[in-house]
Structure formats: structure tokens, C-alpha cells
Amino acid sequence: MSGTAPGASSAPCRFAHYFVICGIEPDSGLEADELTALYRWLEADLHGRSHSTTNQASGENFDQSPLRRNFKSKVLAHYPQNVEWNPFDQDAVNMLCMPKGLSFRTQADNRDPQFHSFIITREDGSRTYGFVLTFYEEVTCKQICTAMQTLYQMHNAEQYSSVCASSSCSMDSLASSSDEGDATSLSKLHRYDTYDISKDTLYVSKSICLITPLPFTQACKRYLTQFYTAITSQQPPPLPLESYIYNILYEVPLPPPGRSLKFYGVYDSIICQRPGPHELPLLDFSLRELFEQLGLDHIIQLFTCVLLEMQILLYSQDCQRLMTVADCITALLFPFQWQHVYVPILPASLIHFLDAPVPYLMGLQSKEGTDRSKLELPQEANLCFVDIDNHFIELPEDFPQFPNQLGLVREIAEVLLEFGISSPGSQRDSENSTKLKNLVLDELVNDKKNGNIPSNTINMFELLKGNETIARLQALAKRTGVVVETMEIGSPTVNDEKDSKLWFRKEEMQDYKLNVQIREIFANHFTVMFAEYESFIIHSAHDLESWLTNREQMQNFDKASFLSDQPEPYLPFLSHFIETQMFATFIDNKIMSQWEEKDPLLKVFDSRLEKMRLYNVRAPSLWSPLYQKCSILKESAQAVEQRLAKIDHTAIHPHLLDMKIGQGKYEQGFLPKLQSDVLSSGPTNNNRWASRNSTTQRRKDRVRQHSEHLGLDSDLREKYMQEARSLGKNLRQPKLSDLSPAVIAQTNWKFVEGLLKECRMKTKRMLVDKMGNEAVELGHGEVNITGLEENTLIASLCDLLERIWSHGLQVKQGKSALWSHLHQYQEWEKKQEQIIESPVAAGAERRRSDTAMSLPLLRVSLVQDMRHIQNMSEIKTDVGRARAWIRLSLEKKLLSQHLKQLLCYQGLTKKLYKRYAFLRCEDEKEQFLFHLLSLNAVDYFCFTNVFTTIIIPYRSMIIPIKKLSNAITTSNLWICVSGELGDSGVMQIPKNSLEMTFECQNLGKLTTVQIGHDNSGLLANWLVDCVMVRNEITGHTYRFPCGRWLGKGVDDGSLERILIGELLTFVSEDDLGKQSRTPPQQKSPTMTRRLSLPSLGGKSLTKPNAGQIQEGIGEAVNNIVKHFHKPEKERGNLTVLLCGEYGLVSALEQVFHHGFKSSRIFQKNIFIWDFIESAVAYFETTDQIGTEGDSLLRLSAYKTLCHYVNAINTAPRNIGKDGKFQLLVCLGTRDRLLPQWISALAECPTITRMYEETALLRDHIVANSLIRVLQILEEFNITLESSLAKGIGI
Description:
The chain is built from 44 helices and 30 strands. It is of the alpha+beta class.
């Protein structure tokens, strides 16, 4: 394998690299497929089944008929021995040529040849294609026939001695069911699967294969078909078979880009073509077959899953269907490329690769009779299962819709209709009518012997005109969409044969046209969608070396800005897609194109964008909310048609070789032994294409070596570059060449390392995006993460946890491995006599807030959180419950702690998981939990904001100031709690109680509390310190500071107050004082500020000066402006900015209190509202309203102020004077009247009586400045929370 065969230097320009023959080795006899047999034996051992019918050493399974067992195949020959550019991987090629091993047949079985293709993806992403024709050859070796007879005798003896044969559907039921078929009737199996050496002829499968650098599917299929025809034909081929193999290996070149090539098979010429450098890459698999098998809707769904890098499993009896669907769907990704595991045909012996905890696209072959319900897949939480044969697709939960999907589907449907393609559903409907049409045509052709039909082109309808039966058939055909075309009927001649070939090429031409048009539609859709992607790329490095070295710490794409430019319906998909590895690689390639040669796909995509910009030069933006159809469909189809119509190059004809005569004698139905010495080496530069391309290749090699020499400054730099290039890329392809236990263990170890790395990157991204200003200082981009982005990252974390819990799973129960583990832990705890306190939870079992007086402590319990999720009737699936539990634990900052507690029960973990599983790797598990623990540094509301309709229990408590007031009031208390999602309504608090619990629909983040009483009883007046409200599911506790009296004749006489809340930060006993805190939300004015007001008299704290007051006004207005400049869904609560501690109302109170003559007159408190009422009384006098010198604007301000003040005074609410002032400010801000009112109040003569001369309101310059600042708010549409304006009919 290490040597290089002669002629290998021309390998890169050769059409085919290898010709391979796989089959049975007569000398070794029958060998069971040991890998598959060993895997079944382990599964039987795992499920406790008997091994009596399974011989581990030999791999025999006597429950199976010998003709249905897997036998080991071998590579019998391959030519040449090795190619430098594409080393031959014998094990991989053998597995993929015969993915289910050798199969035997008798003369009673179907032995039609089967064609399929495969692909080998190397770890660097490069691909090699294989094209296989499998046929059956008679077994002439008596030892093999005798061995088969013996196996049948053993099989029959086992069947008769066994009472019943049962085979449980294990995790490998995918392989066992595909090998065993539907074993529901042993008698039927025994009746048809028999072999008698004296009566039956035994046949064994053999494969011939071409391995090529490019996927020339149709050309290779034609070549192999002609080769097989030469083997089975009664007459020997014109030349020895070695001549045709030699020709395809060494004398047929690759067609140059943008050119077509004709070469020759055994009997006929073969044409292939290659797209040009500015066209879409080569796709020679039929999109017609893809649409006929799955249908348009299912294809769009599958395409979306592939774009979002979900786990994709294709399922079909036909290997070629698996390959067609896989390669076609990935070809539609242009300009993006699939970056993860890609195995379109998964050999049965490698079924355990479905356990891979990474995104993958795999295909699994089934057999007739296999039921989807019997398949047990290792993980299904994020799996897209595609049953190709039954036209069925099973999608993951939370599946977003592809952007502008309706327009895309309509455009594709138009093209499909043009080519006469219907979906599987409509195909079934028209099946009967199509059969009727075919029967009629067959009868007409057979009628030629009577001589009553002329041998010329006739119209079917004209021929059958007047026939009532045919008229009905015609009507039926018309209803079902069948078009009856003209046909030529005549005697078979040589011309007919030529016409049939032309007809076949016409069909092939149609497929080429369909392929290019469908792909152009998808490519155009991406071109429009990402037309401005370059504007959002962040260029943060000056050279390639520094960029590669710091790649992991950089953000290369401004995701938040990009999403803000997109239509809202597209955001669910786009927010997920820009987090995928394929998009990250696309952006990386664009950045690296500054210093390296541009990626070929990127080059084509950018050239299309430039062309589009030329056509849209006058448009301000390429993006449009309307669907834009592709305008180059006809042009692209014509390019392919012209290339195939005019052959650019013709290869050398096959010719006689200098070989020994007499060897490899032709015998019909048998592939002769080929002369390897002739085929092991090619010509020595006598091929004009090889010579030309070899010279070009040598020139490229020199340039490449020179650039590498200049680029490699040190080993360290190379190490950084390699690591950076592979950053975020998982294992692309399982290694098929060596399947020893050591290699399998190494593969699983790579999976473990990849999961840990992915966890580290995801948690780091979540922290960086959430920490705001700290992220900006570190150079990581935006200040705030949007809610959409946050939800996307959390959904990605949920997917990661599901994949971790699915890795190495022994017995699968349900679709969610994580929820299954949690459920079994819950069952284990139920069996205990009492709840066992885990060492993990001992220190943090009870949490307390940073305030001395609080609600009863809330218990921290993993099982209790599970019960909360189980009680949510809105969630129907295990996957949904697992994701809800993750969100709840993350919001409570208990995710790491809960998972650590779950994994502390090692007995359960060992029972559920294999030794190599991620959860049983102690060091990696500890690092994983540590990364999750880092998420406790930020606050998430991922549960509260997602499950908005669930019923949540709340607990509230009123805390009075006992030193200055009664411990409890004799009045009837009531409370109303409001949040971002609604309010609880007014609720009566039980007599002589300060605490109550209530249930209502999720209120979201709590914002305000209304509290009041009816002033009844002897001890009605009550001084309230604060109100505490806690969400009993999430544990979030809100404190609503008050510090004011409720009662008549005290304070401002208010019987009800509106309080603004703050979220308390909880800390554990051990971490008290150590845990970092995020800044609290704004809250209602505190006790300290209230005591500083003259209204309460007594000791007064330091008053703010004029400069501080003006700064406070500017800050309050600025916060409101910033609020409205955020996306609507990210704005938060406006009430906090209006009425909070540093809100607009508080800032205006400071303005009105500055210089206010508030000294007590006869022990009566004077409030701002008293000044406003005095001003209104002045405005309402007949002498002032309507003065000739007043402008219309001023008169309007007088009237509206009087109207609003009177409406507030007459409202059926018992709010105090400070509450009325707050309400007036809010209403004035909402209705854009506040600046006018400030101006009117500042000019009112009453101000001289109630304010000192140094007051801010009496300073005209300051007052005008205040008015101009407040006018800024007039451009915004302000909506007040219902609790603020309740009862005011304005």
C-alpha cells in the first residue's frame, strides 16, 4: 500500500483510480461476518438472552436460514495496487461494496444485478466515490456447496429442537431486522429458504467496482452494465476484458471543467460532462428520483434538518436510493457544505456508529418486512428519520420553517410540473391510469403482426376515436393528469434501435436539465437570503497567523445585526442556522480568502452576488420580503445541453494489450481471472492528457511547496493553524479500514473529547453574550444578547445534553435519554424510606435571600423540579419534558448541581451506560459539570419566558414596620400582582394574615404590586415596609419596597399604593457574600428616599442639589429613549422606567420638591399635589380662562391639565396625593402633554406663593431646558400598564 504504481503521477487527471472485484475467496471457504456476529452476541448478553443459538467464536446464528446469513466478503483484486493521490483502503472498500456481506441464492431466487454507489469521506473532508454492480455467479467449489448443505442440516436440527424462536428487538434491531427480515412465520421461511446440493444450484454475490475522484454516476453505471453484459453474454466480448479495464483506468482522462468527454465501454460509447468553474459543482445523481421517492414537502423538511445540522438517518432497502437522497440533499446546500459525519451507506457491522453523539447524515439498508416501530435508535431527541421506501419522514420537535418556504415550493413545483414529475401521493393516485395507458400501448404494438397499423407516427387519440371504452379511459387519464403522446409503431429495425438510444439520451438530457434548474432555484434562494452577508463579517485580524491563533476567542460575524435586518418569520430558522458549523466554516473561508486562494464554492457564490449587484445597481438593498424567482433557469439548462450536444474530447478506444494468450479463458456467466501484471501499471506518459496534466500538476506542486516553505515559520505556528482550522469540527467520517477494539475505543474517545470541547465553547458563548459590557471590553461584540439569540443558544445546549446522555446508552427507553435517566432516578428515590440527602445538595439544600425578613425557605430538590414538569399538561413528550427541566434548572441556577446529584448514583449510571460512555469518564464529567456551573454567573428566564400559558403557584407576604406601626391591620387587605404577561386580579388577603398563596397563569417577570385596604376597624392605619412575592416553581422572589402608610389622615392619605419590584439574588449558605450579582432592576422609591422628603417631616437627609436633579431628569429620559430603540421583544418593562426608583416620576418629584415651601401649617402636610390643585383652581377661574393674550397652545394646556387633574380626583380609587402626582405624570407622558403642563405650571402665579425664589421651576432657563428634554418623549408611543391607569376614564 505504501508503494506507488507506475502511472500514478497521472492519477489526479484520470477518470477512474481503481477497478475492484469483491466476492468469496474459494480457498478460505464460508466465513461468518465476525463483526456483526460479535455485536449481536454482546447485545444478546446485554438483554439476558440465551447464547445457545449463537456461536460467538464462529459467528453462526442458527436461528437464521443460511441463505439469509451474513458471510464475510473479501477484495479479490484491485487494479492498480495503489495510487499516490488516493491510497487504497481495502477494508472500507470491501465493506461499502458489499455492506451486508456475501449473500447466497439458488436458481429459485431473484438474481438480477444491482447497482449502487458509495462515498468515502476522509477526516480532512475530501471524498472518493465508488460505483458498484453486484451480480450472482454460480458456485463451482464443491467444498462451499457442501458447507452450505451442512449449515442447512444444523439449521433444521436447531429449528426442530427449539420450542420457539424469539429474537428481541435490541438496540441493533436496525441491523438484525434488516438481516433477518420479518421473522413472523418460520414455516414460510423454511419453505422458501431451502438448499439441496443434489437438486439446487448455488449462486454467490460478486461485485465489480469503479473508484473515481468525481461522481460520474451515470457514466460509471453504463460502463459497469456493459461490462456485466460482456460476462453473461453467449458471445465473448470483442476484446479481452483486460483491454476495457486498462482503458478506463489509464487512457480515459477526467473531462476538463466546462467540457464533455466521450469514451467507450464494451459495446457502446459513453458521454459525461463536467460543469465549468463558474457553475454549480458536479451532481450526477438524479433529482428526479429524489422527488419521486420523497415528494416536495418532505424534501424541504429534510433539507431544513440538514441545514440545522440535526442527526439524519435515511432508511431504505435499496443502497442506491440511500446514496441518491444523501448526495442530492447535500448538493442542494450550495454554497454551504456538510461538516459532520457523512456515511450514506452504513455497513451492518458498523451499526454502533449510530451511537455517535454528534450531528450525522447516515443511511441504513433494510429488508422487506421491517417495521419502523421495531427499530430502536440510540437517540431520537434531535433525529430526523427518513423512510425512503414508504415516503415517510419523522421530524424532531421544535422544527422551524424554512424562510419563504411557500414561494420556494411554488417555484420548484412549476419546474417539476414542466418535467412531468409528481409527488409520491399523486403518483399513487395515477398509478392505475398509467397502467391502463401502458396496456393499451402494448396491445397496439403487438397488433403489428396483423398488418392493420401503418408503420408511421400516429396520434393515439385519432386511432381510438369513437370507441366508448377508450373514451372513458381518455377521460380518466385526463382527470389524473396522464398525457398520451404520439408514438411510432413499426417493425423492429436497425433504425429503431438507434432511435431508442436517442430516446434514452433524451431522457438523460431531461434529467441533466432538471438537476441544474432545481439546484439553481436553491442557489438563488441562498443568494438572495445572504446577499449582504459580507457587511456583517467582522475582520479582527491583520494576518492569517494571528487570525488562526486567536480564532476561538473571536466573533467573526455580527449575528445580532444580521438578524435585526431579517423579517420576523425567518428568525426562528436563521437564528439556529447561523450557529451551525457549516455557516461558521463558510464565514471562516471568506475571511481566509484575504490571504489564501478562495474556496471554490465561495468563489462561485461571490461571483453570483457580484452579478446580482450589477443587475440591482439602483436598488438600495438586495433583500426584499417578496420571493424572488431565479432568472437563469433556461440559461443554465442550455449550457448543459450545448455541452452534451457537442462533444469536446474523445478518449482512446480500447485496444489489444500485450498480454499472454490463453489465460482468463472466457466462460459465460463467470468473471475470468484477469492478468494482474497487465493491469497493475499504466502507460509511461504516452497519454496526451496525462502528459499535459502531469506538467501542470508538477508546476502546481512546486508553487504549493514554495508557499508551504514560506508559510511554515515554526512547528508551533503549524500546530496553531491545524487546531484553528479544525475548530468546532467533529469527526467527519468513522474509520472503516481498521475495526479493532482499540480503534473503536479511540473513535469513542474522540467523541468524548468533542462533546467536552463543544460544551466548553457553548457555555463560554452563552456567558460572553450575556455579560453585556464585560463582553464589549473583551472585544466580543454586542452589549446585549437578544432574546431570540439567547433562546437559540439554550436550545442548542438542550440538544448537547441530549447527545451526551445518549452516548454509550445500553438500553434505550423513550426518545429522551436524559428524561429516561431522570425518571429512573425518581423511581429509585421513591423506593427509599426517606429522601436521601446527597452530599452534593447538603450544603445548598435550603437557600436564603440577602434580606433578614423573607418568605419561608424554598426547598432545593431535583425530584421536586421533575414533579413540576410532570404536572405541566401542555408538554406531551419526553423530549419536551427534558428540555423544560433543563430550562427550569438553568433559570434556578441549579443545572450543574442537579446533574451532579443525578450522576452521584453510580449504580444507576453503570446500569444504563457502557464503559466508554461520556458519563462514565470521570475527569471529563467533572469538567463538563464545571462548565455548566459557570452559567450560574448570569440570570436566565428561559423557563418563564417560554412556557407562558402554564398555571404557576405564587406565595406573597406583606412585611410591616413593627417599630412604628401595628403588626397587623384590622382593615380588609387586598393585593393585585402584575407581570410582563398579565396580572392576577384583585385578591382578598385572609383576616389576621400577612401571607397567602394563589395560582394563576404565568405572569412572567413580576413588575408591580397594588396593595390597599378599606380603612375599616380601629387599627386601620398601617405602615408597610415591603411586599414579597415568590414564584413557587422557579423560586424567583421579588421584593416590592413601600415604606409608606396606608390609611386616612396619615402620610398622604392613601388607601392603596402601586409598588415597583426588584428581583432578589439568592445565594447559598456556603457562597454567601462570594457569589457575583447582576445589577438589580429598578424598584419603587425606597424608605430612605421617602424619609428624605419633607412630607414625612422630622429628620431629613441630604437633599440633592440642582445639578444632580437635572442630571437625574436627563438619565430618566435617556433610559426611556434607549428602551424604545431596542427591538420590541427585548424592551422589558416600561413601568420601571416611569415609576421606578430612578424613573421619570421620581426625577420630576425632585424637580418639584426643589425650593418647595413645605413647612407644616397647623400640623398639616403640604404635598406637590396641593400645588397642582392650587394651580388648577387658578386656571379654572373665569378671569383666567380665555384671556386675550394667551395663545391657543397655552389655553389647550390649561384645559387639558384641569381636565386630567379633575378626572384623577374624581376617580373611584383611594390613592394618595403622591400617587395622584405619579398618575398625572404617567398620563401626561402617554398623551404627549407633559411639556405643556410643565410650562403652564412654571408660569402660574401660584408658584410664587408656594416656591422659594431659588426653586428650579422659577428659573425660566432651567424650566425651558426641562421642557425641551421632555419633548423628546413625544416621538414615542407610550402604553401604560393597566394597573397604573385603572379607573381613570381618559
